[in-house]
Amino acid sequence: MTSPGTRSDAQAEDLDVEEALALVRENPGPAHRGPARPGPGGNGSPAPHHPANSRHRATPWPEARTTAERAARAAARAARRTPLAVPLDAALGLTLAAPLAALTDLPSFDTSAMDGWALAGPGPWTVRNEGVLAGHAEPAPLVDGEAVRIATGARVPPDTTAVLRSEHGRTDERGRLHPTRDVVHGQDIRPRGQECRSGDQLLPVGTLATPAVLGLAAAAGYDTLTAVPRPRVDVLVLGDELLTGGLPHDGLIRDALGPMLPPWLRALGAEVRSVTRIGDDAEALHRAVTSCDADLIVTTGGTAAGPVDHVHPTLRRIGAELLVDGVEVRPGHPMLLARLKDDQYLVGLPGNPLAAVSGLLTLAEPLLRTLAARPAPEPYTLPLRDAVHGHPHDTRLVPVVLRDEGAVPLRYNGPAMLRGIAAADALAVVPPGGARSGQEAELLDLPWATGGIGVCFT
User: Is the pLDDT of residue 386 over 90?
Assistant: First the structure.
């Protein structure tokens, strides 16, 4: 037997993820904060790319983010992933791939909005002995001059003219009920269909499934939601110098990215399937990349040109296309984005922790957001409370806290540092040359600053 919540699945059985993405872009709806940033030329043309063994300049920071969005749209077209019917308890943070239409009137019958008495006609009223509770069958009709005790959410008896709140009534020595203030016809009754009628569209395609959306879907009769599937991500942690426990010693350091990346990627809408530690082993990296069927592979470290930096040689060996090879941003300059297959990409993050965060927000965030059909956040700015030194040529991403309609830059913002970002609400985008105190700066929200740990809702 088909559950009520699967009815919308038939409406979208031929809808693929790219069509859902198109609907999101064309009809943003209430859950969207703003349009995606336009790419170079603003026409959505394919991103320029080059073989992994070619030489070129680093990509400007805004262009790198736009390239990642375009790559995700191309991947969605190539993969033709079908939206899924997802149980409500697993749908948090997903994007609706079919409109949410009411499967019933809300409320589905006339209900009492308050604890008190259901009344018929003018008072005083004779009170029935039995009461009316929520969850029970329809009670017997009332006649004029009659009242019955009723609980919030209970079905009102037929011929009820109003509900009198408990605090607005009194009984006399004969047990008759009197109002202590005027009674208005229909007061404190929620009529059937007050919120919606069966078939009304409640939310459009592209809406993000927040806790409130899940509650509305349940109230409207759904057991499942038709949603865009989460992009699948595998993480490869590179580096022989990394420890998974204990204190640093003998030239070894603790791995900060292994614990940090999976929850951060989940907050960006991904399904993180595995975290594999490879070390500095070129053959192991090649095997891991070529055997992976995830939508996105994220690597940590190994993106520069040192003797044990194996990401570029591996990409050349498998014939990958480098869409972004270095970004004009600090920290995080040696990040990269490569197309492995038509529907599979690799984001190479630098090994330094804050540089890796920069790579996450520059390349992984727009790619995952677009694959998951989430709306692009609307860019916003706040004045900086202090001056920020800039790089002569590159954009800087600086951790800030938000205070009194301003952004306060934080110390400990070096490439290898996490102390600043751990206390931050956002990253400020500082243009080349720096920014003076009071200057407006674009801000990149951190997932937990706007939506709670585990899922970014906005």
Answer: yes
The pair phi, psi for residue 240, each rounded to 5°, is: -75, -15
The DSSP 8-state label assigned to residue 245 in this structure reads S
| pLDDT(255) > 80 | yes
The answer to whether position 437 is within a domain reads yes
Q: Judge if 115 and 98 occupy the same domain.
A: no
Find the CATH number of the domain harbouring 184.
Answer: 2.170.190.11
Domain count, the chain: 4
- Mark whether 126 and 213 lie in a shared domain: no
In total, the chain counts a number of residues equal to 458
219-222 contacts: CB < 8 A, separation 24 or more?
219/106, 220/100, 220/101, 220/102, 220/103, 220/104, 220/106, 220/196, 221/4, 221/5, 221/102, 221/103, 221/104, 222/4, 222/5, 222/8, 222/88, 222/100, 222/103
pLDDT digits (tens, 9 = 90+) for 229-244: 999 999 999 988 887 8
Q: What is the pTM of this model?
A: 0.77
Check whether residue 274 and residue 145 sit in a common domain. no
Confirm if 144 and 124 have CB atoms less than 8 A apart.
Answer: no
Other Cβ atoms less than 10 A from the Cβ of 223: the count is 16
pLDDT, residue 123, reads 85
Quick one: 294 and 185 in the same domain? no
Contact 364, 296 (CB under 8 A): yes
**Distance between CA 3 and CA 297 in Å, rounded?**
36
Q: Are residues 264 and 364 in the same domain?
A: yes
Spatial CB neighbours of 125, under 8 Å, sequence gap ≥ 6 = 117, 119, 145, 146, 147, 176, 177
Print the domain residue range for 220.
1-32+84-103+198-228
> Do 386 and 338 fall within a single domain?
no
3-state secondary structure of 16: coil
Tens of pLDDT, residue by residue over 75-91, are 887 766 789 999 999 99
Return the pLDDT at 51.
Answer: 53
Is 50 exceeded by the pLDDT of residue 299? yes
Q: What backbone phi and psi angles, to 5 degrees, belong to 449?
A: -75, -25
- Other C-beta atoms closer than 10 Å to the C-beta of 293 total 11
The reply to whether 24 falls in a domain is: yes
DSSP string, 404-445: TTEEEE-S--STT--HHHHT-SEEEEEPTT-B-TT-EEEEEE
